[in-house]
Amino acid sequence: MPHSTPEIWQWPATAVADAVRTRQLSAVEVATAVLDRIERADRVVNAYATVDRDGALAAAKAVDAAVASARDPGPLAGVPFSVKDLVVTRGVETAYGSHAFAGNVPDFDAEAVARLRRAGAVLVGKSNTPEFGHKALTNSPRHGYTRNPWNTGRSPGGSSGGGAAAVAMGFGPLAVTTDGAGSSRIPASACGVLGLKPTLGRIPNETAVELFSSFINLGLASRTAADLAAGLTVTNGAWNDDPWSIAVPQTGFGVSDHPIRRLDGLRILVFRRMGNRMVDRDVERLLDGHLATLERHGATLADGPDDFDWAKPAQFAAMRAYQRARLDHLLDTDRDRLDPSLVAALEEGRNQDLLTVQGAPAIRSGLFRRVQALFDDHDLIVTPTVSAPPPPYDHGQDEPMTINGEVAGPIRANWYGYTGTFNHTGHPAISIPMGFSPDGLPAGLHAVGRWFDEQRLIDLAAAFEILAPWAQHWPPDA
């Protein structure tokens, strides 16, 4: 175990599993350490919507019983994990961050959660999310604001802000996230951890309301590339209840012994902007440094065209149409209890032009073809994950973003406009920590790969984990 991470709650998932399987630690010891850490430190950060202490300790005891009887406890034996409060969990409230679903306790798990439990991982609780994951800033009417671990005056991003903050704080080394427009990657950047959106269908998302036109993925957050690989190995693979996952082979992922060597020969296409006017100077400086590192180790870089058509209006139309179809009835039953920004989003959905909504799928198809063609000559697309450090924790979804002291414009287009495109094209994407701004706020590098090429993204993360390490850095209270 590295000397820089002596506390049990700081151990990565891979180390926890090895220690539990070999009886160096008990799963109960691990769960207790993480639960106590949450009790001590989550009062300000508010990463968790619900903590299931009794359930976690019972699961940990079951893992220890398997080890004691020489039964295989699973590849993630004793590893604590969180699940976003949008994902169904057996026996633990799934409220979607909403008063409208308070007390909703499912009697089954989403398949990805079930796979983690069968692998010996221990569900600690549900991470906070904005109501129904509708925005990139994490606060909900039911569970309040989540704060950024590095500066509690700032947002952790969203909508998987609770999961990313939990991983950053040592509240469990793995988090199950969701991602409909960057929701696993935006908070990973803001909190200084890894955030993966896999290829559409790689991890089953069978509980989604609309399956066939889906652009919403289940993803993962972790502090290390090895943990990300371990979590993805367990959760991926075929599942007949998700049409995108049918016949997707279960694949093992790992970390190379020499990940830096895998940078040699990479062909990388760089987009510094994707419709946004501005990039924060410190974010751009960090990006430039990482791009220079890639070149030093044999990668070749090219700049993407400034006029590339990212079809942003059609992406927005599809999102609003999906939200309206799923949630419009709440305007009639629960309007006064909903987040005002969700009300505004649903009203926008009601007012959309029908032809715009009907035309969005065809435009999405054209976008896929254009992005797919970029990979004819390039192995990866690289951008910043977001254009600037995170805004104040109580920043409104409809308030403009300020960058370099100047009002840049709406937050959707000008802060997190890099990520959502790849939900609609289905390509896998990852946010990799690339350091801190002078005021101590994290920033992320966003890399996009070919369909089902998550291993290349993990390799990239593993290389930067060595070249520009972040995993030994902990928020100030740690």
TrEMBL record:
InterPro entries assigned to the protein according to its UniProt record, in alphabetical order: Amidase (IPR000120), Amidase_dom (IPR023631), AS_sf (IPR036928)
Residues covered by the Amidase domain: 29-457
Family: Belongs to the amidase family.
Pfam families in UniProt: Amidase
GO MF assignments: catalytic activity
Record's protein name: Glutamyl-tRNA amidotransferase subunit A
Domain of life: Bacteria
